[in-house]
Amino acid sequence: MDALPGDELVAEPKWTYTLAVGIDAPPEAVWPWIAQVGQKRGGFYTYETLENLAGCKITNTTEILSEHQHPSVGGEIYLHPTAPPMRIEIVEPPHALVVLGSPADFETEESWGMSTWQFVVRPGPDGSSRFLTRGRSDYSSGWKARVAFGRFPIEAITYVMSRKMMLEIKRLAELS
């Protein structure tokens, strides 16, 4: 598996996933949708009803929101209004956005896990792009850590939601 920006943040994950999709648009057309991802931002471009059943209070946009186009290292991206945010660790427009989540980083819990969510856009032939998302997770042996950062049930949820997100970003970027 090729290394991606942010892999070093969780150097020895207990589990990881990588998904990819081709997009008939250059990285510059894909980046605005990635730059604004998050709760109270552009949303997650997934199944809004399911997200809101889980209390996420998400509104997915189909517009580029100028106020969310400049994520910066140290910024925060929320997945849920009551969960600790993920911290932005890497910003390399239009190619990479990487966030790190660990409750201990935000002094809300003892250290029981950490994970990354990596968005990478690689240029392809003829002005196209390859959009990848990767997650890497490490966690302690306690049940709370396994539920929050472990493979089950997160893997199934991640696949369904990430796949939908990627296909929607593809659709939006190709319309741009």
Question: What's this entry about, in short?
Answer:
It contains 4 helices and 6 strands.
What's the topology here?
Layout: E1 15-23, H1 27-35, H2 48-53, E2 76-77, E3 86-92, E4 96-101, E5 113-123, E6 129-139, H3 143-149, H4 154-175
Helix pairs in contact: 1-4
What would you note in describing this structure?
Helices cover 25% and strands 26% of the residues. The protein has 176 residues and is α+β, with helices and mostly antiparallel strands. It has a single domain, classed as Alpha-D-Glucose-1,6-Bisphosphate, Chain A, domain 4. It has a six-stranded antiparallel β-sheet, with helices on one face. A hairpin with a 5-residue loop joins strand 5 (113-123) and strand 6. Helix 1 (27-35) crosses helix 4 (154-175). The longest helix has 22 residues, at 154-175. The chain is globular, with a radius of gyration of 15 Å. The mean pLDDT is 90.
